[in-house]
TrEMBL record:
Polar residues composition bias: residue spans: 112-131
Entry keywords, A to Z: Riboflavin biosynthesis, Transferase
Catalytic reaction equation(s): (2S)-2-hydroxy-3-oxobutyl phosphate + 5-amino-6-(D-ribitylamino)uracil = 6,7-dimethyl-8-(1-D-ribityl)lumazine + phosphate + 2 H2O + H(+)
Pfam families: DMRL_synthase
GO term, biological process aspect, one: riboflavin biosynthetic process
UniProt function note: Catalyzes the formation of 6,7-dimethyl-8-ribityllumazine by condensation of 5-amino-6-(D-ribitylamino)uracil with 3,4-dihydroxy-2-butanone 4-phosphate. This is the penultimate step in the biosynthesis of riboflavin.
Protein name: 6,7-dimethyl-8-ribityllumazine synthase
Length: 223
């Protein structure tokens, strides 16, 4: 990492091998999202998070991120509960949770395959893998890119999503990493996704993956 004023600074490299991470991303501004998702996955894996412990879901736009993050987390809790109870009475709840966790695939077809990115483009529902950790997510990364237009849309959505994601993490206690770019221009987005020709900035998804691992590990210690 270069020594600049901005950025998270040097951090210890945390071991993500015991973590289960959820990623929820918007599909609006797909070129940016695809690069940011790649950056996030790259750092998660560099920190030892295993493919089978990463679940990726998508929603149409950033506005949908807070609810989806909340539902993903509660579904993972239910799924984990059932693995402890061994099915039985929790069965109905669990199959609902599995539908939510494994039921859809990202539309960003260039992305590497991960545990829940297994669906076909036909939209066929697939169940979550049982190979991975059965605990609730240790952190969720919410990824979106809002680009300012000529109306007040950008301001309302940026504000609502920021507050929504904060509310989810404070209410559930699971770290929700803020991967929402609030962009005044498309150029700003290309720079922050590491896609600009001048390579002015790095891919911010890389920071989000590292933050998810750090917070996931620290939260285990916080109880
Ligand atoms: C409608 C809309 C617009 C105009 N712009 C964006 C954007 O730049 N980034 C984004 O993630 N989503 C955008 N959306 C979609 C909204 O977030 C949301 O999906 C719809 O209003 C439906 O609730």
């Amino acid at each position: 990492m270069t020594s600049t004023l901005k950025g998270p600074g040097e951090a210890k490299k945390y071991d993500g091998s015991a973590l289960r991470i959820g990623i929820i991303h918007a599909r609006w501004n797909t070129k940016l999202i695809s690069a940011l998702l790649d950056g996030t996955l790259k750092t998660l894996k560099a920190h030892g998070v295993r493919d089978e412990n990463i679940t990726i879901q998508s929603v149409p736009g950033s506005y949908e991120l807070p609810l989806a993050a909340q539902k993903m987390y509660t579904a993972s809790q239910q799924q984990s509960q059932s693995s402890i109870l061994g099915g039985g009475a929790a069965g109905g709840l669990v199959s609902a949770a599995q539908d939510l966790l494994g039921g859809s695939t990202t539309d960003l077809t260039s992305l590497p395959k991960t545990s829940s990115d297994q669906g076909s483009s036909s939209g066929e529902t697939q169940k979550s893998t049982t190979k991975g950790l059965q605990q609730p997510f240790d952190a969720i990364v919410a990824i979106g890119a809002l680009i300012k237009g000529s109306t007040m849309h950008f301001e309302y959505i940026s504000d609502a999503v920021s507050h929504g994601l904060m509310k989810v993490q404070l209410e559930t206690g699971v770290p929700v990493i803020f991967g929402l770019l609030t962009l005044l221009t498309e150029e700003q987005g290309l720079e922050r996704a590491g896609l600009d020709e001048g390579k002015k900035m790095h891919n911010h998804g890389e920071d989000w993956g590292a933050a998810a691992v750090e917070l996931g590990v620290k939260r285990k210690g916080w109880g």
